[in-house]
C-alpha cells in the first residue's frame, strides 16, 4: 500500500467521501497485478471475483451481443472495472483485455468485509457509491443500446427502437 494508491482511490466515484484510514484498510488486503498487452483481466461470463483499479496502461472493454463483439470502452489509469464482484458473484458482463502492459490493484469482497468489521459507516458509504456507479453505467449502457439496436420489424417508424415485448 502506498500513499499514491490512496490518492488514486480518493479520485474515484466508488471511493468518494471515504477516509484515508478506511482506504488504507481496503488497500492493506489488496494486491497489485500485472497484465501484459494482449492478455485478459477476465472474459465475459467468467466468475466475478475481484474489482480492479487500473494504475497504469490501457485496457479495452468488449461485449459480445447478438453475434457481434463490440468495444464498449477504453480504460485508462484511475478507472475501475469489475465492481459487480464486490456485491454479487454473477458472471462477468464484459471482457477486459490489456491493450498495453497494465498494472492494477485487485480488490476482493474480503477487502470490504475487513472494513465492515472496523468501520461500518465507511463500508456503507462504499456500498452506496458502488450502487450509484453501477446505476450510472446501466443508464449509459441503455443509452448505448438505443444506438446499436436494429429497428424492430413491427414498428412503422424509421430509425432505431427498442424491441417490442409482444
TrEMBL record:
PROSITE patterns per the UniProt record, alphabetical: CNMP_BINDING_2, CNMP_BINDING_3
Segments traversing the membrane: none
SUPFAM superfamilies recorded: cAMP-binding domain-like
InterPro entries attached to this UniProt entry: cNMP-bd_CS, cNMP-bd_dom, cNMP-bd_dom_sf, RmlC-like_jellyroll
Domain Cyclic nucleotide-binding per the UniProt entry, residue ranges: 14-108
Pfam family, one: cNMP_binding
Name under which the protein is recorded: Cyclic nucleotide-binding protein
Provenance organism: Sphaerotilus mobilis
Amino acid at each position: 500500500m502506498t500513499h499514491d494508491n490512496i490518492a488514486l482511490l480518493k479520485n474515484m466515484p466508488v471511493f468518494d467521501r471515504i477516509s484515508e484510514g478506511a482506504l488504507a484498510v481496503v488497500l492493506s488486503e489488496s494486491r497489485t497485478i500485472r497484465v501484459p498487452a494482449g492478455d485478459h483481466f477476465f472474459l465475459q461470463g467468467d466468475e466475478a471475483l475481484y474489482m480492479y483499479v487500473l494504475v497504469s496502461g490501457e485496457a479495452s472493454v468488449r461485449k459480445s451481443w447478438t453475434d457481434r463483439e463490440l468495444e464498449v470502452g477504453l480504460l485508462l489509469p484511475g478507472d475501475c472495472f469489475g465492481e459487480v464482484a464486490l456485491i454479487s458473484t454473477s458472471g462477468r458482463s464484459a471482457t477486459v483485455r490489456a491493450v498495453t502492459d497494465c498494472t492494477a490493484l485487485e480488490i476482493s469482497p474480503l477487502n470490504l468485509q475487513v472494513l465492515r468489521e472496523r468501520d461500518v459507516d465507511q463500508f456503507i458509504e462504499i456500498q452506496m457509491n458502488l450502487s450509484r456507479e453501477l446505476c450510472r453505467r446501466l443508464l449509459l449502457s441503455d443509452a448505448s443500446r438505443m444506438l446499436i439496436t436494429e429497428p424492430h420489424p413491427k414498428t412503422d417508424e424509421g430509425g432505431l427502437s427498442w424491441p417490442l415485448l409482444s
